Every structure is written in structure tokens, then in C-alpha cells.
Amino acid sequence: MRKALFIASLLLAPAASLAGDAAAGKAKAATCIACHGAKGISLIPIYPNLAGQNAPYLEIAMKAYRDGQRTGPSAALMKPMVAALTDEDIANLAAYYSGL
Ligand code: HEC
Question: Could you identify the atom of ligand 1 that is nearest to the CA of residue 28?
Fold first, then answer.
């Protein structure tokens, strides 16, 4: 199983953004599905779609929540979601969602 995942990540790597690893991002995205949908299209109209969004924008947005630069009632929902993510995790998530 681990070997299969590793091979899958090698196969997916060329299609991913240069900055991040989409397969690794997908593995981190389990907690995002409740609000942003299984394929990055939100089922809740007041939550944003992420699928197909530009990776650099997604990265900047996630870092802004994590680092407290995006604030407000909705941003308060996002901050705990990204609080424990490293820059690498964020780049991987951005590569995953931009590729959907
Ligand atoms: C509890 C619901 C919830 C969960 C879970 C959640 N988000 Fe969000 N997310 C939101 C809301 C609400 C916003 C809009 C916040 C605002 O108005 O700034 C948002 C915004 C974003 C944005 C910015 C979109 C844009 O167009 O500016 C990104 C990127 C994002 N979320 C990524 C993630 C990722 C990655 C995860 C999982 C690690 C995640 N979110 C988990 C609710 C959630």
C-alpha cells in the first residue's frame, strides 16, 4: 500500500505545480472536505470553492489565515484548520486544489 502510494505520487508529480506535491496535499486535505467539498467545490454557499484556483493565491491565503493576517468571523473558522501546517504542507495543499 505504501509502495503503491509512493509510485502514485511519482506519477502525479509532473502534473502538479512546481511548488508543491499534489499527492501529499491530497493526503492532508481530509480535514478540509467538510467545508470545501470532496473535490474542492463547497456544498455550503458561504464557503469558498478551492478547485482550480491558482496555487500561489491559495498559498498566500492559507498563510494569511495561519499567520493571523486574514481576520473576521469566517476567517476565524479557517485559522485553526491551517494553524499546525508547515509552509511545505500549504504548498502541497495549494498544488492539490489548483489541480482539481
Ligand atoms: C469549518 C469549515 C472549514 C474547514 C474545515 C476548512 N475551511 Fe477553508 N475556509 C472556510 C471559510 C468559511 C473560508 C472563508 C473565510 C473568509 O471569509 O476569509 C475558507 C477559506 C479558505 C481559503 C481561501 C479561499 C479564497 O478564495 O480566498 C483557503 C485556501 C482554504 N479555506 C483552505 C482550506 C484548507 C486547505 C482546509 C483544510 C486543511 C480548510 N480550508 C478547511 C471554512 C473551512
Answer: 38
Spacing of C-alpha 85 from chain mean position: 10
Confidence at 19, pLDDT banded by 50, 70, 90: confident
Task: Tell me how far the alpha carbon of residue 32 lies from the centroid of ligand 1, in angstroms.
Answer: 7
> How many percent of the chain have pLDDT more than 90?
81
- Cα separation, 84 vs 100, whole angstroms: 24
Specify the residue with its C-alpha closest to ligand 1, atom 6. Answer: 32
Ligand 1 mean position, distance from CA 1 (Å): 30
Q: What is the dihedral of CA 15, 52, 86, 72, to 10 degrees?
A: 180
